[in-house]
Structure formats: structure tokens, C-alpha cells
């Protein structure tokens, strides 16, 4: 699959048409998406209509926008006009259809993009594995026996497999950065609240954000503009530091080597109380998730995905004072982090503690003991969500190996600096997407 | 590790000694041939005091806490910009109703460095950033050795002269304050450990020196007729102005902390280090800078302010300690019976197939609650 900016350029110049791009894209999805268990609904009728509209605009001599004819998909928790928003749950399979598209979809379509699919996820976004009772477990395009990560696993898998040039996901505690790392593509969790959340099924308000999966930094920057992300001036020069302490435990040696190679002179700094931050994030997420679904749980708990259900019930049962204590810690912690970030522009950290775990044994080693990937793949991303800072997962370039990512963490509102630094790493060949063996090679151009 | 005694609202022993010294000097002042002897001993005591200051000051402590430089800038700004500005404003406002020398004393106290020991102790009690407090208070004292006399020279006029800082004062400051301080500090590698170990033994020297200076100063002041010059109305006004000054500084510091988003622990440092004035530095420095006959009346506001700051800060530190006290760790339901009871209260029924999963997830959340409450307060 070509990059989004390349497809748009070809469509805008008349080299190809949006309909031709879509035809190729739908063929790819039909042929490949089944084995990935990544797609929940193909929106062919809507996509044909949108592609035709783009071609009509071009035929009329007007510009359909910077994403002219670019196909994309969204995680199954974005409102899509005329369809129930299921959030990956059979509980909402027959919910009343959404009356309008989510705000982010509106912005993408206004720029000429064509929505073609909704994508698999952990039920209610509660998990890091995309193990879904209704739709199945999403497979990693680099090895179908491995997890793609989650909860936005479907969104990551289709992009990594070359079936779509980009997709939308959501990230509460790592749900974009983890699948991006495990499938070897770019994924951004923006500054908390930076991108429009209208029409997105919530999970835990304190940390919920939408974000993007892309194949290149050029696409990331283009899409960021379209979605209306902040356009602040990038820092120059960029002061880079490496995160130490817990961020150097439970990590692949290649991630450490990469961080040291990227910033050999960057100071090694430790964020304070990182284990407490992760635990507070865990408790807040459980409490807010439980509260959101409490009524449905009391009505029909057995209709939930069993793995999600029991976690949500446990969240409902958390005492309020514990939630309050975690929020009080968070308020103080965020201010402490702002003070630390004052002297740095980019912090480097691993995105996941390891490569994609096997589906047959979805456990990972944390502190020498095996624990559930579903809950613990977020060990390095969850504390960053806790701070509300933006974090971009970039894929290390390591052909022939399973993908692994690093987080580039910036100050609030400093996505432009992260993008600039990531683009520089991409140019140097330190990071970049490696297509999985046997990736879909269809080419509409 | 800072060892703390429980903050108290009752006047401490040292304050009682100070009052006794002032009363003693009022009734039995040094007279005649005793005067030059008392003054010489007091001068030597001042030099000894600053020698000990120098030996006690840890550059390592300053360097270790120096990373939080914005906080130290705020503390120094409070001590050396905000306080003097308030002092000058008060002089302008109350010149017509208060004794001129008392107001001079009020301005003098605003130019002094922060306290070291009590700033750190109150910060620790309140749950603040002790490392930063050690650095901030030490830095304030180090800078004060030079800056306070300079500010005195710049802002104060005494005894009809255009500036309090005459050439004689500069010489006295250099000989009595700066040289002993530097010598003490240079000898710190050899005597620092001894001084740290024998703090209790050295305290009488420390405090005795201050009492001696106070006795000498008030002897001269009594001879100059201090108690016919200063009445109960003046003392009440001083009390009120000191309180006002402290409230304004503390309010401004809390406001600034909120404005710039300081963490609670650093806000406490700014509040306590930025609002203190050092009696231990101020009394001997006044002895060195001002004419003997005026020292008594000039340090009177400082002595009053000193006690007010101790009362107020003790109350605030206790309040912060209560607010920030580790809340009791809320208990999660763990057994099936506890889970069912908790669920029933919320109108939930836990179906049998869910119980094992719910129990396992609550155990996981319980471990995270343990981590959250693992050290200090959450």
C-alpha cells in the first residue's frame, strides 16, 4: 500500500481515480482481512459513494482536499452515520444507529478521505490484546500466530498489512502505541484532549484520546493537520533525554541499544514514582470503566465479553476513596512531570516490553514472572497516559525481526516537535516501517 | 534526615531567654567601664557566630538541590525583592504614626536572609520537599552575607546619614561577618563533621552569642532612652505590621505557586523558606552595621517578627501535615462473601460464572492499591 500522501497526490493529479483506488482497496480487504480478523464491517456502499463524490469534484475542476480518495478505517468505537456504535461488543450490536459521523470522520471526509471499514478491538477498549469474544482475536500481519496488540489491534493490523494507508484508533493507556509497536507502524497518542472526541464511545474519560496509525511520518503530519491538531512551532534544537529506571527494566535489549544510539549524549533521567503512577492509572481506568458500564452490568452482565465483564465488575466494586486517592496523586504527579519536562523536548522510552506474544500463550514476562498480555503490555505506555503528555510510537527498523517500537514523549501540545524529530529518525533509517513478508502488494496507482 | 521536634505554639526557651535578656538589660544595663568590655565580647561573639555559620553551610546540600532552580529563584525573589518592597511600602504608609527607628528596624528585617533550621523543619513537618528546602535556605543565607549589607546600604538611611552603610560599616562587615564566615567555610572539610556531631554542645555558644549581642544592644539602647521612645502602642503597631507583612508574603507565595503550577511539596518550600527572616543572622549583622545606640531598637521588630513567624508557621505546618497525612488505605472486597455484599450495596448481582474472574481482578486491583499507597502519601 502506498502512503496516504502519495495516493492523494495521484488522485488529485488525475493519475488515478478515487474509484480505482477504492476498487483495489476493497479487493485487498476481501482477500486478506479475513485471516487477520481485523475488520468488523466493510462499508462498501458508503465508500463507493464517497469515492464517486471525490472523483466528481475533480472532474468539476475543484480540489477535494489533501486526502483525495485515500481509503481508511476506524476502530469500532467511532460513530458512523446509520450504523450502531458497538465498541466491539455484542451488547450494542442492535443499538440504534448513530445519527451522525464522529467529528474526526467528518474532518477526514471533508479532506477527501474515503471511509471503508470499521475495525476490531478489545471489547469497550479494555485490553492490550484485541481478543474479542464476538469477532475473534486480531492477528499480527508479521506472524499470524501472534497478537497484534490492542485495544486498537484491528486498526493497526490493516495498516501494517498494507490493506489501508492509515486508520483511526483510540488510546487510553496504550491502545494505539502498543499495537503500533507490535505491528511495526507509527501510532500517536496526542496530548490529552488535543483531537476531537465527539462521537467516540468512551472508556475512561481521564485518559481517553483518539489517534492515528500511519506508514510514514509524512502521512502522520498531513493527517494531524487535517484532524485539527495543534500546529505549534517545533523546538529547535531538540533536547532529547532517555528514560531510565523502570523504563529500562522489562525491555528488549534492542530497544535500549536504539535509544542509546538515537541520543548517545542525552541524559538518562528517571521519572519519579513511576510504579505508583501506573497503579493509579490502572485504578482510575478500572473505576471509570466500571462506572460507565454499571447500569448495563446490573441489567445483563452475561451479555458482556467474559474477560471484559469481570474486569468491569471489579472496577465497579472499587471504593470511591481509592479512586479519589488515585486522582489526587495524579493531580500532584502531573505538576511534577511538567517541572521535569521543562528541561527536555523529547523523552525516549520503550513502547512495549517485548515483541508480540503468541496467541496460544498470551502472556509476557514482567519482573521475571509471567503475566497476562491483556493487562500488562501497557507497562511502559500507561504511566505516560497518566501524565496527559503526547507520545508517538515509532517502529525500529529491523528487517527480519518481529517489530518493536519506541515512544517519543513530548511536552503538552508539542506534537510538532515529536513529528520533526521522528521524521529525522526516519530519514536517518533508524526507524521506519518494514512490510511483513507476504504483505498485500496491490497497487492502485 | 531531618529530626524534628513537635511544633509548639508556646514560646520556646530561647524566646524566654531573649525576653529575660531585654528585661535584664533594661534594669541592669552595662555601664561605665563595663561597656567597652561587653561590646568587645559581643563583637567576638558575632565573629564566632559567623564562623560557625560558615562551617555549618553545606555546599553539597546547595548543589544537590540546585536542579530545582526555578523554585530557588522564587524563594530568593520572595526574600530579597517582595519583602523589601513591602517594607518600603509600610514605611511610606506608616511614617506619620510610628517611630522612625522602629520602622527602620522593620525595613531592616525585610532585607535579611531566610532562616535555615526552622524553614527546613517546618517544610519537613508539612510534608514538603526537604532537599529543596535545605538548598533554598542555605542559598539564601550564603547570598545574604553579601546581599543584605548591600541592600541595607542601598535602601536604608540611619542617624541622619544618606546611607546606613558607611566605610566603617563595610570594614566591620568584612572583619566581623565575611572573614569569619569564609574562614569557617574553608575549614568545613576538617571541622564540619565535628560541628554536625556536636550540634547540641555548640548550641549554647550559638545562642549565647546572640543573647550577648542583644544584651549589649539593649544596654546601649536603654542608655539612649529606648523605653521612653517606644511605648505599648508602638509595640502593638509592630505586632500588627509584622502579622500583615507575613500574611501578604505568604499569600503572594501561595498565589505564585498556583500560578506557575508548583507541586504541593515545592509550594510548601516556597511558603516556608520564602516567608522567614533570620534572627540568627539579623541580630549580629545589625550589631556590625548600625551604631551601638540604635541596634536595640532596630532589632526589636525582628525579635517580634521572629516569634510571630514561628507561631504562624507552626500552625500552618501542622495543618499541611494533617491535610497531607496518608489517608487510610481503602480496603477492597476480596472474598466471595465480601464481594457479594459490596455488589449488593450497588445493586449488582454477581453471577456464579463471574465470581472467579471478578475475584482475580479485584486481587490485581488490590496489588495496584498497595503500590499506590506504598510510600508516603498517594
Give a quick summary of the entry:
The complex is a heterodimer of chains A (445) and B (378). Chain A has 445 residues and is α+β, with helices and mostly antiparallel strands. Chain A is built from 14 helices and 17 strands.
Q: Explain this structure to me?
A:
The complex is a heterodimer of chains A (445) and B (378). By secondary structure, chain A is of the alpha+beta class. In chain A, 39% of the residues lie in helices and 16% in strands. In chain A, the strands form four sheets. An eleven-stranded mixed β-sheet of chain A has the order 1-3-2-8-10-9-16-17-13-11-12, sandwiched between helices. In chain A, helix 4 links the parallel strand 2 (71-75) and strand 3 (114-119). Chain A is globular. Helix content of chain B is 76%, strand content 0%. Chain B has helices at residues 13-27, 34-56, 59-64, 69-94, 100-110, 117-126, 130-155, 167-186, 188-197, 199-223, 226-229, 232-259, 264-273, 279-289, 292-324, 336-345, 352-372. In chain B, helix 1 (13-27) packs parallel to helix 10 and helix 4 (69-94) runs parallel beside helix 7. Chain B has 378 residues and is an all-alpha fold. Residues 1-10 of chain B have low confidence and may be disordered. The longest helix of chain B is centred in the C-terminal third of the chain and has 33 residues, at 292-324. The chains are: A alpha+beta (445), B mainly alpha (378). Chain A binds chain B through residues 273, 275-276, 278-280, 282-283, 286, 294, 297-298, 301-302, 306-307, 309-311, 313-319, 321-322, 325-326, 328-329, 332, 335-336, 338-339, 342, 375, and chain B through 68, 70, 261-266, 327, 330-333, 339, 342-343, 346-351, 353-354, 356-358, 360-362, 364-365, 367-375, 378.
Q: Top keywords for this entry?
A:
heterodimer; A: 445 residues; alpha+beta; two-stranded antiparallel ribbon; globular; B: 378 residues; mainly alpha; Na+/H+ antiporter like fold; 2 domains; elongated
